[in-house]
Design brief:
Two copies of one chain form a homodimer.
Chain A (H helix, E strand, L loop, with lengths): L16 H14 L8 E2 L1 H8 L3 H13 L3 E4 L3 E4 L4 H21 L5 H19 L6 H18 L5 H20 L3 H19 L3 H13 L5 H7 L6
Antiparallel strand pairs in A: 1-3, 2-3
Helix pairs in contact in A: 1-3, 2-3, 4-6, 4-7, 4-9, 5-6, 5-8, 6-7, 8-9
The first copy, chain A, binds a DNA duplex (30 and 30 nucleotides) through helix 3.
DNA sequence: GGATCAAAACTTGGATACAAGTTTTGCAGT
DNA sequence: ACTGCAAAACTTGTATCCAAGTTTTGATCC
């Protein structure tokens, strides 16, 4: 087996090494630089990061806990392949939590309500103004922020934290399916519809649009699957 | 500081040590044998389980990931105190996910639907038949199973897995608030009401009763707080 | 050339040793 | 008895070494 080249194994000295390695590997997995099925070697990673196996090992067990890695004892550590049932589960959970957050919006004080609405509007404007070479990354960041704001209706940190921890497997797909400008316009339109539903206190409309928006990824993952069948179970 | 005595640090040889230690410590935390604020020493635990610090350390980092432990570098590892906002977040997320699952029940095939209803009925009967010295533990197990069945309406494993991973901080309270038989009867009545709503396809009733049931713990945690104020932030 | 089998080189799991920093402790001085 | 300070005993973070098992490799035999 040929050695695989991961881009920039840089390391900072003033933070715990294990956590840095974890974050770095996690982001590499999400953008599919480390592709499903690949094998990671603790020794190899330790050499690249210029640390011992101990912090690498800790990072890998955390990735396994997140469902992004599968550690087979005495055999190797492999980037988990994408599971369609898992994708469906993520959509379900996101839809459940964000819908509940939208339901909470009606019982918010007018001040708090309009403040959040303001945030969503400015985010939406930023989405519409997007252009340039880093368009895809920029949109994903704004999209994350849009849904984070939705969760803020719950006035609690846990909902969004939970979505973030679960979202990684969905992001691996999203990074590929968001390409054409036309698709991007559709996504922005969906966001606008959700916002309009919330603003007019039409939660049925808002939740309906949100569900359609969140489940849309399930109708696009087959695009990725067609070209990379070996990335899936 | 006096040495604290944890009950039975037994260990099995045919499973990974780290996972066993993790499970054991986690259950000890949930039943409050390891109380909020207590300090755990890696060396001490390693001696008790008769292993090296390596698997102990892995177990502790996983407990930290679950929010049950706080590892302060070069200072010690402490059982996390109970956070009321965190409790509220757990209630919110559980309510969101289980409500969404109940919503899915209306679009299930009659065969699948009646099969799940059967399971809930037999579980409810078991709850009503409870008695004996291990009543509290038995009820908590049946209660968990009841809500797991609710999640099965989603026909996906992730929702219940996620609830399980988040539920630990709620269980620490539940173990204390479920004491009197009268309270237990109230909880069983709530379960029955939820089931009745689902069976009659009255999802509004079911979701309403479920929300009331899940949020009930927020009105009882003050009982625990009154006697153990130092267990909370 | 192809198949078989043994040895070597890999994998992770665990134990031990050392490093850096914090807390406690105990002795000395008042 | 009380205060102050230094040393010892703790804490976790990391490195290194050994063990057990799997995979690959390469030589040998047909």
């Amino acid at each position: 087996m040929k050695k695989l080249e991961i881009p920039t194994p840089k390391l900072n000295a003033e933070a715990p090494a294990a956590r840095q390695i974890y974050s770095h590997l996690r982001s590499l997995i999400i953008v599919n630089t480390l592709q499903p099925g690949m094998r990671l070697s603790e020794n190899d990673l330790a050499a690249r990061y210029e640390v011992s196996r101990q912090p690498v090992r800790e990072a890998l067990t955390h990735l396994e806990h997140d469902g992004l890695l599968e550690i087979k004892p005495q055999r190797g550590s492999f980037i988990r392949k994408i599971s369609v049932p898992n994708l469906e589960g993520i959509c379900f959970v996101r839809c459940a939590i964000e819908s509940q957050a939208i339901l909470e919006s009606v019982s918010l004080s007018p001040q708090d309500f309009s403040l959040i609405i303001k945030g969503m509007e400015s985010n939406l404007n930023a989405q519409r103004a997007l252009s340039g070479p880093t368009l895809r990354e920029d949109f994903l960041r704004l999209d994350d922020d849009f849904h984070r704001i939705i969760c803020s209706f719950a006035r609690n940190d846990l909902p969004w934290e939970l979505i973030q921890s679960v979202k990684a497997n969905m992001d691996r797909i999203r990074f590929f399916t968001i390409e054409g400008v036309s698709r991007l316009e559709n996504l922005i339109a969906a966001h606008a519809a959700v916002l309009e539903g919330i603003r007019t206190h039409n939660v049925f409309l808002a939740v309906g649009m949100l569900k359609e928006h969140l489940y849309e990824i399930l109708s696009t993952y087959k695009m990725v699957m067609a070209e990379n069948a070996d990335w899936f179970d």
